[in-house]
Amino acid sequence: MPHFFRTLAVLLLASAAPMVAADDKDTNFIISPQVREGNPSKLMVFIPGGNVPNEDYNKTVIAVQEEVDDTVNMYVAMLGFSSRKCIKVCPTSGACFLLHNQVKDAVEMAREAGFDGSDEDIVIASHSLGGTCANYLVQGYPEEQMYQNGAIFYGSYVDEQGQFGLENYPAPFAMIGAELDGGLARPGKMANWLFDFNKVSADIGISKAVEKSAVLILPSIDHSNFCPGFQVPGDIFPSEVDEETATKEISQTTAAWLRFSLFKNPSKKDINLLKKMIAFTNDLLAPYFEALNYEVMNPAMHYLGEGGSYSPLCEDAQMILAGFDEDDSSRVRIGRDCDLEGFEDSRSCAYLNITDDFEHSRSQYELIEEEGVLNVNVSGHANYYRDFLNTGSFTCASEVGCKMLSGKRIASELGMEYDAPTSRGTCKDVNAHSIQVALDLLNGSRSLVRYSKYGKKICLGDDFDAILSAGPAWIKESLEIKELDECLSVKSVKIDTELDSRLFPGVHYCKLLSPARVIDWIMTDSLKEAVLRRE
Ligand SMILES: *[C@@H]1O[C@H](CO)[C@@H](O)[C@H](O)[C@H]1NC(C)=O
Ligand SMILES: *[C@@H]1O[C@H](CO)[C@@H](O)[C@H](O)[C@H]1NC(C)=O
Ligand SMILES: *[C@@H]1O[C@H](CO)[C@@H](O)[C@H](O)[C@H]1NC(C)=O
Ligand SMILES: *[C@@H]1O[C@H](CO)[C@@H](O)[C@H](O)[C@H]1NC(C)=O
């Protein structure tokens, strides 16, 4: 059916059946614990994810209640929204009063049901889009005690940086992610906060870091496992484990963190579980961090606009294009400096973080006769995916642009015979190298085992010329990454010129595939059509 008619049909159905629609609307409800005499009362206020019926969290929160029942009587106030989108009643941190009022109502309901703690006994839990709203409540109501005690973000997160980023967040929290999350809280995105978590750990110690801002990715589960019964669009569904196993993993980790960080009476088992999850999270993402370093050194989450001084991928790329043997390669020395002064037209830095500067950079060379060495200056620039209001899924580069010399130019300056008019290698060869780098970094990992078995593979197409073969056109064109039925197709846009070319003679430019982009693909998107588990 054409799209227009489908939309119309849906509208008609909706208006023809108003009673059914009204029944569907979620409202707040309370789930009371099995009350144990002498246990203190706690209350978890839960904010559901977008479009998820709030009852689909019953199993998860009841499992959490049961996990902590030796320590506390944990009431749960499940929020419900008629739109099933908390964001409608809390579009920003400064306009969250409708949601705030609804939380107050829910707390009142919990008191009527028997919750007899104070505002200090309330924690906020949330899933997915619900986490965005929880984050807004914390930010919008700094004086409100119930938002400052502790927060659990399932498949969701705090700000990427700044006052409400991980390092400075006013409330203790645990971000609990899923290894097979195919959406916005995929491991490659969680990497942003794991990076900060490890910084904080190095600073104040791992134990304090977990207490204040834990980042835990749980193995084998997906984003939909937090709301069993509901399939979140775009997820890797179903996950690798059955519902019961997933719920257990989620509830035990949640209980361990609550007892460790908030209730201050962790068991040995809790501590071991938290240690195990932190180790898992770090092991999972270690190859990804190493791969990010190929885009830009020195290491940081560069998509947030931080500095960097050179691109190891561009250095590799230059040598792959030249295609020299080992002896000849040792006669090429690639610089890592930056010459920002004294150019209009000769700006040269090994890495430029602004597209405009990159556009004006020039690959340079200088023969050092006494050493028989050619100093070569390549320049790199990584482009990142859009991340408006923290809604991007990728922290890796969408492409790494490298301006290099043709192999022929280098050979000619060194007085060597060379059998190709531009370069022996191609951008495609470098993309193959990026894939190999990713596979090597993942050697022995569960991500690679899974991908080898089930993942859609990457296929490399031939390089294509920028329109007009001119610098400005090349800058504006992008590495082509396109998912086809049978593979993820990747093709580089290039410029390569011969030594007698009128424009930029003897250069070779490529827009290249980042090894980190490959790892992100391997960990998540490659698996979306796979059947990881048979029911
Ligand atoms: C979820 O829990 C609420 C409160 O106990 C209950 O009314 C509702 O029927 C439950 N729904 C499901 C699907 O378990
Ligand atoms: C480029 O890097 C410098 C630090 O080296 C940083 O101050 C600046 O904000 C960055 N600019 C962009 C656009 O990323
Ligand atoms: C160019 O590269 C050489 C080494 O090959 C290095 O010594 C020099 O500083 C570089 N120049 C710039 C501007 O990066
Ligand atoms: C991968 O790891 C295995 C051992 O686990 C090792 O034998 C092999 O050489 C490794 N391959 C690469 C490319 O590092």
UniProtKB/TrEMBL annotation:
This is Uncharacterized protein. InterPro entries: AB_hydrolase_fold. Keywords: Signal. It comes from Triparma columacea. Residues 1-22 form the signal peptide. It comes from the Eukaryota.
